[in-house]
Specification:
The protein is an all-alpha fold and about 240 residues long. Helix content is about 85%, strand content about 0%. It has five helices and no strands. The two termini are about 55 Å apart.
C-alpha cells in the first residue's frame, strides 16, 4: 500500500511537470502566431491609409515610403508565422494570406502609379477585406488550439490532483492501520495485567497472566507471579 501511494505521488508530480512543459510550448507557439497575425493586420491597415492619402493627392514619395514599410512589416510577420506552423491547416491558411496579399499589392501598385488602370476604392477595399478575412481565420485557428490545449491541461491537472489525493488518503489509511495494530499490541498486555491485578486484589491468587513481550510490560506479569507465590495462603 505504501509503495502504491508513493508511486501515485511520483506519477502525479511527473504529470504536473509534463503539463507545465507542454502548456508552455503550445501557448508560446500559438502566441507568436497570433502576434504575427496582428502585425499583418496592422500593416495592411496602414497601407490602406497610405492609399487613401495617395488618392487625396498627398506627397507621393512619403506615401509610397509608408506603403513599402508596411509591405516589409507584413512579409516579416508572415515569415514568423510560417516558422511557427504547428497546427494542421495552418500552412494552407498562410498560403491563402500570401496569395491574397500579393493580389492586394497588385491592385495597390496601380493606385500608387495613378495610371489609366487606377482601381477604384471598392477594388482596394475588397482586396484588403480578403486579406483580413484570411488573417482572422489564422487567429481563430490559433485561439481554438490554445483553448483546446488549456482544456487538456486542466484535465491533466485534475487527474494529477486526484492521484495525489488518492495517495494521501492511502497513506492516511495506512497510518491508521499501523497505529491501530501498534496500539493494540501495546494496550492488550496492559489490559490483561490490569484485569489480573483486580482478580488478585479480590483474593484469587490462581490467575495466570501470559508473558507476551520481553520489555517492562512483559516483566510485570513475572513480578506479579512472584508476588502471588509469596501471598498464596497455605493450602491455597
Amino acid at each position: 500500500m505504501l509503495l502504491v501511494s508513493v508511486l501515485l505521488v511520483v506519477r502525479a508530480i511527473m504529470s504536473l511537470e509534463e503539463l507545465g512543459q507542454a502548456s508552455s510550448a503550445i501557448l508560446s507557439e500559438n502566441y507568436r502566431s497570433i502576434a504575427a497575425t496582428s502585425v499583418m493586420t496592422n500593416s495592411i491597415a496602414g497601407q490602406e491609409r497610405a492609399l487613401v492619402r495617395a488618392a487625396s493627392g498627398s506627397e507621393r514619395e512619403g506615401v509610397e515610403r509608408a506603403f513599402r514599410e508596411g509591405e516589409t512589416w507584413f512579409f516579416q510577420a508572415l515569415g514568423r508565422a510560417r516558422d511557427n506552423i504547428t497546427i494542421e491547416g495552418q500552412g494552407a491558411i498562410l498560403d491563402t494570406i500570401q496569395a491574397r496579399y500579393e493580389t492586394f499589392l497588385s491592385v495597390a501598385s496601380r493606385r500608387l502609379r495613378a495610371d489609366d488602370t487606377n482601381p477604384g476604392e471598392a477594388a482596394i477595399a475588397a482586396a484588403v477585406h480578403e486579406v483580413l478575412a484570411a488573417c482572422d481565420r489564422l487567429r481563430e485557428l490559433n485561439e481554438r488550439t490554445m483553448y483546446q490545449a488549456s482544456s487538456a491541461a486542466a484535465r491533466l491537472a485534475r487527474r494529477a490532483v486526484w492521484a495525489m489525493a488518492g495517495a494521501g488518503a492511502g497513506l492516511v489509511c495506512l497510518g491508521l492501520v499501523i497505529a491501530m495494530v501498534l496500539s493494540r499490541r501495546a494496550v492488550l498486555p496492559l489490559q490483561r495485567l490490569l484485569a489480573a491485578m483486580k482478580i488478585v486484589a479480590a483474593g484469587d491468587y490462581q490467575v495466570q497472566v501470559p508473558v507476551t513481550t520481553h520489555d517492562e510490560i512483559g516483566a510485570a506479569p513475572r513480578r506479579l507471579a512472584l508476588r502471588r507465590g509469596r501471598e498464596t495462603p497455605p493450602g491455597g
